[in-house]
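Workshop exercise sheet. Pairs work together: one partner reads the sequence aloud, the other fills in the structure field after running the prediction. Swap roles for the next sheet.
Pair: D.N. / O.F.
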Amino acid sequence: MNYRKVFLVIFLLGVLGSLNAQPLPFNREQEQKDFPEIYKSERIQDANIFNAYKSLSSYGHLVQMAQEDRMMNFERIKDPYNPNALKRNITYTPRNTYVRYVKESAELLLIGFGPLDKVQATISEKVKVANANNIPAKEIQFGNRGGIELTQFTFIYDPKDPKREAIGSRRKTVTLFFDQTNQAADAQQNLALSAVVARVVNDNFIEGSRNIELIIDPSPGDEQLEDVMIIHRENNKDAQAISAGMMRNNGAYPHRLRFKQRFYSTFLSDFDRLYTLVDSYSQRDGEAYNESVILELENQMDY
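Structure field:
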């Protein structure tokens, strides 16, 4: 055996691996000049995403409703015979979905990605690299905001299996966090959408595999998506972080456009529709009562 050749192969593989692990700097301005149509398509997707954010920002009142439901649930556990504890603000949700009130924390949002300190260090490193390349990425700060979480659950089936037996599951979640923009006691509390967190979990029961993706936009109110951070973990491997602003957007690798066009824009639009249904369903009981009263009054006009 030629040990010198073996050593050389191992050395080259190690060098190539370290090179591939490093971010590749590129000139965004030159890339935009070279591929104007791709950048034009990206701006269209940006507008679609901002419109979805604008619509999602109107559901801040659902946070308090979900919080009250959570508190009522504890009251119902303590006193199951209390009729007031049976009331719920959000009773109905779309098919295969559920809603809950959440409190922002790294433990909640980064669950499933491994040790928290290691994951947060990975994210911080990506932010530093992006900033060094003039990409305005932001540190992900986990505060103490209240939010509402909407999850859609589906089973995964093997298309070749005539029995249609489930081989896995997929959970898609969008969590909305809001800040109060007016703290005056005698003024209306205006809520502003301050963070959007999307999560996709794919479990394959047959293969015993799991893929988790987390997309965090720490500032959905601004007019740029350079600070969006994507975190991915496969099975028990170390979690990896990707800065959306550092993705290439050229003819060979239109990754930033593909992320926005084929996933994020459609994903947010789907959840905007689901949140709209949740909001409409939350008004269902009150509107039904109004309807019954009106019908009763109309019956008084019969002679």
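Discussion prompt: Confidence is low (pLDDT under 50) at residues 3-22. What would you look at next?
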